[in-house]
Design goal:
By secondary structure, the chain is an alpha+beta fold. The longest helix is centred in the first third of the chain and has 34 residues, at 3-36. It is elongated.
Length: 653
């Protein structure tokens, strides 16, 4: 074979080999792209072809202690647009602005922003969503998101709190337990072309999960009662504000907590931030004579006095540290128990002198004053209790009757619970348990004793002394209720004038702290009314609120009544003060044995029955739950004075 032929064959073989090698390279690359790196390139392609927008997660539900919803997340529509897919942006902006009640200028600015995706309006009403759907606009889509809704409106608003658009919690339980309630958000995915323009008007939400549920210690029915009575008292006495706390004495569980003015978390824009304030934990005030309870507990524990010890109250005027202390009446020698019953400032100052500044400070600190209680709510303040080295002689006297230090209503309720339960200071709490998405209990809160403050004998003596406060001649007679023996203490304190730095001439805080029943305390109730008009005494302003709440709470909890317990005959209200009802049947002289007609309660809810009770003044025993199925007397029958009146509830099947 000639040399040219051999070279020709070599070139053919080299060409074939090169072709095979090139084929193998192409095949290998194809295998790499289609098999080995398939997932990576598919993911990259999807990223180029899809627009991913994070959407808000679904928060867990907040329930009361009975499992009734206080805060829920509802599915609502949100409107978005792909501006690149919209040709006539001015026309579309005008149509959308009209349908969504937005500024046409702002809508047009979003459509002309150059972005591939924009939110037009989130969490719209069903009517707005329907109007947008009817327009059938290209490049405009609708997706589902979650919106926080509070089915009971104002009920427990300051405790539950509210969320923002994010929707992170901004106040109350929503804020404090935000990480538990907030779920993991999903993603809105929509298709787009190579230029980033949207290809479809609809998007799908992928991934995400809802948050955990919370069960509170609050009882919706008791919360309603407390808010109602507090609101009526603030309005009746034309006060600046009011606070109330109801707590279980043995556990520290807060079953109701109210502030007024309040607000509707579903319409935040209509209210001022001051109305969001949870006053029982965020507002500190000088407690006045309610602090005498803890002074007396300290003195009894230290054997400084005994209940029958005599104290000279100097006929109503006593000089201490260059200043003169006065009593409301010129008392002479009073027993220690009478110092509490009649609320003598001079008697309290003398007990404080015997106790001494160091020991008094020690006991006040032990009762929880001057420090935060540790309740699981945001915004709690610790109040003010200065170190004893900073007390002058007049400071010791003033602090002994509740001036010169500040406390919160929650601190006052917690400290009083220690008297009611035998000397144990319990940590207050409002969340009972956290429940996961599958219904499993992730965490449960248990009652926690912080420390023992006084022994059981001392606590029992103080309880008995507090019981005399609501008896005839005591300052808290208007806290008494028929059928139950209760105990408590009134308080009326001057407010500091921010201009002069001294005490105000006319601004007062009226308060009452107490528990029921006296023999076996179940609930502690604290009531504080800020700047009531007229005669601003705790016995006239706050004590009646305690009576109304306590009476309804005892009925609701079905606490057995003490047949012999009877509210004392009340003295006339001083002139210039609006009469305040004690919440029970009015004990008036009358020849008419009939006190009214029995309403028709059949089919009513617990709340509707309570509203009717308030209007009619009837003291009705309640039992069961659900709707009214039976009552006595029958509807429209006469109600005789002293007769047993009851209604029974049962679940509706």
């Amino acid at each position: 074979m000639s040399a040219p032929d051999r070279w020709g064959r070599v070139r053919i073989h080299l060409f074939n080999a090169g072709f095979v090698l090139l084929f193998l390279v192409v095949l290998g690359r194809a295998w790499q792209l289609q098999v080995h790196s398939r997932d990576k390139f598919q993911e990259r392609a999807e990223q180029q072809q899809q627009r991913v927008v994070p959407v808000t997660p679904q928060r867990g539900t907040i329930y009361d202690v009975q499992g009734k919803e206080l805060a829920v997340s509802l599915e609502v529509d949100s409107i978005y647009a792909h501006p690149g897919q919209i040709s006539d942006k001015k026309v579309v902006a005008r149509q959308l602005a009209k349908s969504l009640k937005l500024s046409r200028r702002k809508v047009l600015a979003k459509l002309q922003s150059g972005k591939s995706f924009v939110w037009l309006k989130r969490r719209v009403s069903p009517q707005e969503s329907d109007r947008v759907k009817e327009l059938k606009l290209g490049g405009v889509g609708i997706t589902r998101e979650h919106k926080r809704y509070y089915p009971n409106s104002r009920l427990g608003a300051q405790i539950v709190g509210f969320t923002g658009v994010d929707p992170n919690g901004l106040e109350g339980i929503e804020l404090h337990y935000d990480s538990d309630l907030l779920g993991r958000g999903g993603y809105l995915i929509s298709q787009r072309d190579a230029l980033g323009r949207g290809l479809t008007g609809e998007g799908r939400i992928h991934g995400g999960h809802r948050g955990n549920d919370l069960f509170l210690t609050l009882d919706q029915n008791l919360q309603y009662v407390v808010q109602k009575e507090l609101r009526l008292a603030v309005k009746e006495h034309r006060a600046k504000s009011g606070s109330a706390v109801v707590m279980e004495v043995d556990t520290g569980r807060v079953v109701a907590m109210a502030s007024y003015p309040d607000y509707n978390p579903n319409a935040l824009a209509k209210y001022r931030p001051g109305q969001w304030r949870n006053r029982p934990v965020a507002d500190a005030y000088e407690p006045g004579s309610t602090l005498k309870v803890f002074l007396m507990a300290a003195a009894l524990q230290e054997n400084i006095v005994r209940p029958n010890s005599r104290i000279n109250c100097e006929k109503g005027s006593y000089s201490v540290g260059g200043q003169t202390i006065h009593d409301r009446k010129p008392f002479g020698r009073l027993r220690a128990s009478e110092v509490l019953k009649y609320s003598s400032n001079i008697g309290s100052a003398k007990i404080g002198q015997k106790l001494g500044r160091e020991r008094l400070h020690e006991y006040l600190t032990a009762f929880g004053f001057g420090e935060r209680s540790g309740v699981d709510l945001p915004g709690e303040v610790g109040g003010l209790l200065r170190a004893p080295r900073d007390w002058f002689e007049i400071d010791l006297a003033a602090i002994s009757f509740g001036q010169g230090l500040t406390v919160t209503p929650l601190q006052l309720a917690t400290a009083t619970s220690a008297i009611a339960n035998g000397g144990r200071l319990m940590r207050p709490y409002v969340v009972e348990k956290v429940v996961g998405e599958a219904g499993e209990i992730l965490w449960r809160q248990k009652p926690e004793m912080i420390r023992r403050v006084v022994d059981e004998e001392t606590a029992e003596r103080v309880r008995a002394m507090m019981g005399t406060v609501v008896e005839k001649g005591g300052t808290g007679m208007r806290a008494a209720i028929n059928g139950y023996r209760v105990a408590g203490k009134t308080g009326t304190s001057q407010k500091v004038d921010p201009v002069t730095g001294g005490y105000s001439v006319d601004k007062r805080v009226a308060s009452f702290i107490g528990f029921a029943p006296l023999e076996n305390p179940k609930l502690v109730i604290a009531v504080v009314v800020d700047e009531p008009k007229g005669l601003p005494y705790g016995g006239l302003v706050a004590a009646p609120v305690f009576a109304k709440v306590a009476r309804q709470a005892m009925n609701y909890l079905q606490v057995p009544a003490t047949a012999l317990a009877k509210a004392p005959q009340l003295p006339p209200i001083p002139r210039g003060v609006t009469p305040v009802s004690t919440g029970g049947l009015q004990q008036v002289e009358s020849n008419e044995p009939e006190v009214g007609r029995m309403p028709d309660f059949r089919g009513m809810s617990y709340r509707e029955v309570m509203k009717t009770m308030e209007k009619t003044g009837l003291n009705i025993r309640l039992s069961g739950s659900g709707r009214v199925v039976e009552q006595s007397p029958s509807p429209h029958r006469p109600v005789r004075f002293g007769a047993e009146i009851w209604v029974r509830f049962a679940p509706v099947i």
